[in-house]
């Protein structure tokens, strides 16, 4: 760094004035005080002037000095309590000079971006000068970027324009060696005095009363719909997008303004208000408008914070034209400008405004104009352009700044990222552009037409898509005719072509017809996944009948209930169910299989209408009785053609079929691929339950599409899934978490969120999830589907408001079989399409429409829940519980993805365990497994609300289980302890006994998969998931693990990135002995680049450090050779680790091995390293210390150097004190771990003793740009005499400690990868 002005650190600036802080400044001070650093940074104003030409740095520094001397505000700081301004007689603001001209294009861009980001986001200490800073970044010989950053408390937009004008005039005068002709500046002192005079004047009371009258009757709340859940704490995280307005739009809006006798600025502001009316759907809003106080005071050359924020209230009359509205706004703005002297904070104190935590009161949205800031700005001999810098912090929820010139307007949309997504702001910009065009084209049209105010705004309509008026079995026949030899089904080792499948269907249909199945019949079916199951389903449809799928694992009572409720005439099953007594005619698959193998070309020629029933699928019912949903061919065909379009499926796809037939997602796994010519891979039950096996099968079978619940996907992720696969992931059945979506996106090509109740045929809303989505939405409707978000009265709510998700369109089914009253309650007339007499389904799910047109689902409005994808009515389980002996009353709920039963018990504590076991057995005989409670909790009474209803939210989270006393037996062997620790981790338990049962502790399939994966990671042994079901106690499961009872030894080599096809990189730790700095390499280098890092033996303090560099290198080479037996080798070392890497190369070369790359990362070869004797080393080191002392003394003459040395000295003194104190407490070690520091000192002594000798090798030396400390070789860092084949220098941003840290890590990693690839 070059410092252009002399600085004496022992002299303090002279205070010229002490002033009272203005009201507006005090408001900023308090905001920074209470909001912390983030709030402070949100007030940074920063711009860049890009110069081209021969920039005279000395003249520019002189201009900066003169500028500051002219304006008191730029020489001001604030008292610690924010009450007073200290104006100094003079302050120094040196220009920070950075030269990036020698960097590559990529490195240069990264360096400029990094510097600008850091500068814009650097906090100002409001009590210390200066509150403005300057920098020049030299990017080419004649190109420079001049950065100016100041705090809003001493500057405003008007002032920035004055500063640019004066800097240009001063610089030009200095370069031409003439006097400047700038007018005298207006002291900020005069502005403060002017403000104080106003506050005691009669006019001030009138101003205050004006604003109170404006808000007397109502105070509108500008409530922008947000993308994220309500935040409860004010945040300042921000971002900005820029939108360039088309010149024709600018020209047109000017003409529109002329028609309303209004300026361009007022016309733009009024148009922005129209946008806000469209977004908020409100009738009244308040928009913040900053105005410059310099203008009202008549002091246009005044620099300082003089801005006033006016809360511009407006009301919408949709019968007005925009011209009418504009005229009203002009009058209101004129009145507001006349009464601008009341500060915003003062008005807030007077108004009784209810505050919403996390939101900005009264003016969350601000419109500002900073156009033509460079009017009259010239710099002698230079051409320039300027722009403001984006900052990552924002004070308002939305701040729209119109900048540029009156012909080239740029809209800067700054927004709070805790409230809005970038896509939402982009959509706002597009919507604003559309409104501007409408206002240009139709300035006299009613605002109701411009805003399109109607109910349809709250209705989302899917794509209108044509699909055939046909049936499922006819579509399959058409596909089989088209692609007869293509593979339709795969099951284990069997492959079935489309032609073979069609013949199986035909022969099965013939047999079923012979058995008496006719059109309109209902056929219950309970079979495992197999080609026979698929053929049978289509055969039933070919006969004109409909099927009822029943899971083979359902209890007999449940199976009988469904057969009876559906009035099934036939039941197709295997012989294991022959003892079931029901009124249906049974057809066994064993018999049918024989007949089906007699393949036939004969087709049952029955004309089945497309609105005929295809299947009845049962869902849980709140009354204790499941509900049968009646689905037609037409419903399913619409779904299949819509999903064929999006997310899309091709004949080249292979899709897993893993879902039970009783789950309607089976439609996507079977019918979707088969009517589009793709292949279905049927998965057996053993594979389906084991995440490892399922993942392996997906890889081996080249599966391209998988549907699964979040639970299934989590099982796969927890099953050792490492490498990405070319899979389209369909996920549904439960809400998708952000964390899960991000993990999936790393492993698959696409992730699609699928939403839809069974009553609307599997899926009615979907969306492609991206890593930017937050929250995860359910998306937009599929084809021929309408979604309505309705209030309790059936009226559409406004965008952003919560209502019930109601579904209309071709997917709406025929209601519940035999439950007319419930059907009429949930399937209601579509009042939005009254002329069609269609129905819409009330889903019971709450949701809201976001500004980007996506729908967010917010959970249930009733007692329905989902457990691992299964829709459950808690009332059905409670109905069954309340019938059991010993239960006075019961409630259920889902906590941590586990179903819990809460029981008011009539028995004694001694009887509890016996009764719980009996209840489990009785429930298992009538409810599916997924509806069985995992845990029974005894309560004295159930919590109730004030109106006497069950208060489910206040059911306890804790486990209040009363059990008989069992003697505690703790795990003993290593294997038992390992199993116990993994169970505690995965089940969130504090203690586990040796004989505890995994499933009785609340374990289920998702947790089981995680347990087995963690055991494999810790033990290196893979057990099948099924073993946990057979060996479900700690003791029995541990018996399967073969773990020797010996100690674990320290391993110096740690794989950072094990996989990849490139030659591995072996990198050695620095003086800190650990490898934590290297973690960023994994994320930034080529995924195909293996990386292994060496950490020091003895780092853990349990073993001694090695005592020579040669010994360390030999130890590391032993691990290296075990990993890569033959060269060539690529070595690297960071800091003193470069010395070790050099010695490793030396030893490997002595064995005849080739070193293709030796990378030294900011490694300094001290002069004494090259000396072989103790005396020689001491003399060389003494010479180094003498030169370093002179270097330090020279540094002290500069301000930055002095501050650096003071900081270093303080840190060293603190270390010395703590080392002498040697406090071994944990608290002390957070400041200084003297034991660890002692190991570092010992290691450095080892390196100091090393004798560095030259080698016939080339070195790639990575070094930071600015070395602050003394080096005897400031270019090659001492390596020139040791690398006989030359040195290639690579400059990286940051300093010695931050070169691996963001954002420097990306530049370093990219450069390092290039070196490795080129060698």
UniProtKB/TrEMBL annotation:
Biological processes, Gene Ontology terms: amino acid activation for nonribosomal peptide biosynthetic process; secondary metabolite biosynthetic process
CDD domains: A_NRPS, LCL_NRPS-like
Gene3D superfamilies, alphabetized: 3.30.300.30, 3.40.50.980, ACP-like, alpha/beta hydrolase, Chloramphenicol acetyltransferase-like domain, Luciferase, Domain 3, Nonribosomal peptide synthetase, condensation domain
One MF term in the entry's GO annotations: phosphopantetheine binding
Residues in Carrier domain copies: 970-1045
Top-rank taxon: Bacteria
A Gene Ontology term for the protein's cellular component: cytoplasm
Pfam families xref list: AMP-binding, Condensation, PP-binding, Thioesterase
NCBIfam families attached to this UniProt entry: AA-adenyl-dom
Protein name: Amino acid adenylation domain-containing protein
Species assigned in the record: Maribacter aquivivus
Biological classification of the source: Bacteria, Pseudomonadati, Bacteroidota, Flavobacteriia, Flavobacteriales
């Amino acid at each position: 760094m070059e410092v252009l002005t002399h600085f004496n650190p022992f002299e303090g600036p002279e205070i010229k004035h002490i002033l009272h802080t203005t009201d507006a400044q005090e408001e900023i001070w308090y905001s920074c005080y209470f909001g912390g650093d983030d709030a402070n940074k949100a007030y940074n104003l920063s711009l860049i002037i890009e110069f081209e030409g021969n920039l005279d740095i000395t003249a520019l520094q002189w201009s900066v000095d003169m500028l500051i001397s002219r304006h008191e505000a730029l020489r001001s700081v604030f008292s610690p309590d924010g009450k007073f301004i200290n104006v100094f007689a003079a302050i120094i603001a040196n220009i920070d000079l950075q030269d990036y001209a020698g960097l590559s294009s990529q490195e240069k861009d990264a360096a400029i971006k990094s510097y600008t980001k850091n500068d814009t986001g650097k906090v100002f200490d409001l009590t210390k000068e200066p509150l403005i800073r300057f920098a020049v970044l030299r990017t080419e010989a004649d190109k420079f970027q001049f950065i100016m950053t100041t705090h809003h408390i001493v500057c405003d937009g008007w002032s920035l324009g004055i500063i640019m004008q004066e800097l240009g005039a001063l610089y030009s005068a200095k370069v031409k060696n003439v006097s400047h002709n700038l007018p005298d500046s207006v002291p900020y002192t005069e502005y403060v005095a002017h403000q104080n005079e106003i506050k005691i004047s009669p006019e001030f009371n009138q101003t205050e009363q004006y604003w109170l009258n404006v808000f007397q009757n109502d105070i509108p709340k500008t409530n922008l719909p947000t993308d994220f859940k309500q935040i409860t704490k004010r945040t300042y995280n921000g971002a900005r997008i820029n939108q360039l307005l088309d010149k024709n739009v600018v020209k047109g809006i000017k003409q529109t303004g002329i028609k309303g006798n209004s300026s361009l600025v007022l016309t733009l502001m009024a148009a922005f208000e129209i946008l806000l009316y469209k977004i908020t759907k409100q009738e009244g809003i308040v928009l913040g408008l900053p105005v410059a106080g310099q203008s009202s005071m008549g002091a246009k050359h005044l620099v300082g914070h003089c801005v006033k924020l006016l809360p511009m209230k407006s009301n919408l009359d949709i019968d007005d034209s925009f011209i009418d509205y504009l005229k009203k706004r002009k009058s209101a703005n004129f009145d507001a400008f006349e009464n601008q002297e009341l500060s915003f904070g003062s008005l807030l104190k007077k108004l009784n405004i209810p505050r919403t935590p996390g939101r900005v009161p009264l003016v969350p949205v601000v419109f500002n104009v900073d156009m033509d800031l460079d009017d009259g700005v010239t710099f002698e001999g230079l051409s320039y352009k300027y722009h403001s810098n984006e900052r990552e912090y924002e004070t308002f929820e939305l701040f729209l700044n119109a900048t540029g010139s009156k012909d080239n307007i740029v809209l800067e949309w700054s927004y709070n990222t805790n409230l809005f997504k970038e896509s939402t702001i982009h959509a706002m910009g597009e919507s604003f552009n559309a409104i501007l065009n409408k206002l240009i084209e139709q300035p006299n049209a009613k605002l109701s037409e411009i805003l399109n105010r109607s109910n349809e705004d709250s209705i989302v309509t899917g794509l209108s898509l044509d699909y055939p008026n046909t049936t499922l079995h006819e579509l399959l026949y058409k596909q089989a005719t088209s692609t007869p030899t293509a593979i339709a089904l795969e099951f284990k080792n069997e492959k079935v072509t489309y032609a073979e499948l069609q013949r199986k269907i035909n022969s099965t249909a013939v047999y079923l017809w012979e058995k008496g199945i006719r059109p309109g019949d209902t056929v219950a079916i309970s079979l495992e996944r197999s080609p026979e199951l698929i053929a049978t389903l289509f055969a039933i449809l070919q006969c004109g009948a409909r099927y009822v799928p029943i899971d083979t694992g359902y209890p007999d009572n449940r199976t009988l209930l469904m057969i009876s409720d559906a009035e099934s005439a036939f039941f197709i099953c295997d012989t294991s169910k022959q003892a079931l007594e029901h009124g249906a005619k049974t057809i066994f698959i064993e018999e049918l299989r024989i007949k089906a193998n007699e393949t036939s070309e004969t087709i049952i020629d029955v004309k089945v209408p497309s609105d005929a029933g295809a299947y009845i699928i049962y869902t849980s019912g709140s009354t204790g009785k499941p509900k049968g949903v009646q689905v037609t061919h037409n419903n399913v065909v619409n779904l299949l053609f819509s999903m064929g379009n999006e997310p899309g499926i091709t004949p080249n796809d292979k899709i897993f079929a893993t879902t039970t037939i009783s789950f309607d997602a089976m439609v996507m796994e079977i019918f979707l691929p088969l009517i589009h010519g793709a292949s279905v891979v049927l998965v057996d039950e053993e594979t389906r339950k084991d995440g490892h096996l399922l993942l392996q099968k997906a890889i081996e079978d080249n599966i391209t599409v998988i549907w699964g619940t979040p639970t299934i996907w989590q099982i796969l992720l927890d099953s050792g899934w490492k490498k990405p696969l070319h899979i389209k992931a369909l996920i549904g059945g439960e809400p998708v978490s952000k964390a899960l979506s991000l993990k999936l996106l790393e492993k698959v090509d696409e992730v699609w969120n699928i939403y839809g109740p069974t009553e609307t045929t599997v899926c009615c809303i979907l969306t492609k999830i991206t890593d930017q989505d937050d929250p995860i939405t359910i998306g937009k409707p599929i084809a021929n589907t309408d979604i309505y978000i309705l209030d309790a009265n059936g009226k559409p709510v406004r965008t952003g408001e919560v209502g019930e998700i109601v579904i209309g369109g071709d997917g709406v089914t025929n209601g519940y079989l035999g439950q007319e009253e419930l059907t009429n309650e949930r399937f209601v007339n579509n009042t939005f399409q009254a002329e069609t007499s269609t129905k819409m389904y009330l889903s019971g799910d709450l949701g809201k429409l976001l500004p980007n047109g996506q729908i967010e689902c917010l959970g249930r409005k009733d007692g329905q829940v989902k457990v691992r994808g299964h829709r459950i009515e808690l009332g059905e389980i409670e109905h069954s519980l309340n019938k059991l002996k010993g239960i006075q009353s019961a409630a259920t709920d889902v906590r941590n993805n586990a179903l819990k039963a809460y029981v008011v018990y009539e028995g004694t504590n001694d009887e509890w365990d016996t009764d719980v076991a009996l209840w489990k057995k009785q429930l298992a005989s009538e409810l599916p497994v997924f509806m069985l409670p995992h845990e029974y909790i005894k309560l004295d009474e159930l919590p109730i609300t004030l109106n006497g209803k069950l208060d489910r939210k206040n059911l306890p989270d804790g486990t209040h289980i009363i059990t008989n006393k069992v003697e505690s037996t703790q795990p003993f062997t290593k294997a038992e302890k390992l199993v116990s620790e993994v169970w505690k981790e995965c089940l969130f338990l504090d203690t586990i006994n040796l004989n505890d049962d995994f499933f009785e502790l609340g374990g289920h399939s998702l947790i089981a998969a995680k347990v087995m994966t963690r055991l494999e990671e810790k033990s290196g042994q893979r057990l099948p998931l099924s073993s946990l079901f057979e060996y479900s106690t700690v003791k029995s499961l541990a018996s399967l693990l073969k773990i020797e009872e010996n100690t674990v030894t320290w391993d110096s080599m740690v794989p950072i990135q094990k996989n990849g096809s490139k030659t591995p990189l072996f990198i050695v730790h620095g003086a800190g002995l650990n490898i934590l700095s290297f973690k960023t390499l994994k994320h930034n280098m080529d995924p195909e680049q293996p990386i292994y890092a060496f950490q020091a033996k003895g780092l853990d303090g349990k073993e001694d450090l090695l005592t020579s560099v040669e010994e360390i290198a030999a130890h590391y080479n032993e691990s290296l050779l075990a990993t890569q037996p033959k060269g060539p080798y690529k070595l690297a070392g960071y800091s003193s680790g470069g010395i070790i890497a050099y010695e490793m190369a030396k030893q490997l070369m002595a064995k005849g091995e080739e070193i293709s790359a030796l990378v030294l990362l900011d490694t300094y070869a001290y002069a004494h390293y090259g000396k072989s004797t103790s005396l020689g080393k001491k003399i060389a080191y003494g010479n180094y210390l003498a030169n370093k002392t002179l270097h330090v003394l020279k540094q002290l003459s500069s301000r930055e150097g002095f501050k650096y040395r003071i900081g270093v000295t303080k840190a060293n003194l603190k270390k010395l004190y703590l080392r002498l104190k040697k406090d071994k407490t944990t608290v002390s070690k957070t400041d200084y771990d003297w034991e660890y520091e002692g190991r570092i000192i010992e290691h450095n002594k080892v390196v100091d003793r090393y004798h560095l000798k030259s080698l016939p090798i080339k070195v790639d030396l990575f070094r930071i740009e600015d070395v602050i400390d003394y080096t005897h070789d400031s270019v090659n860092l001492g390596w020139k005499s040791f690398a006989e084949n030359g040195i290639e220098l690579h400059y990286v941003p940051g300093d010695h400690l931050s070169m691996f840290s963001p954002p420097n890590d990306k530049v370093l990693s990219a450069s390092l990868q290039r070196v490795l690839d080129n060698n």
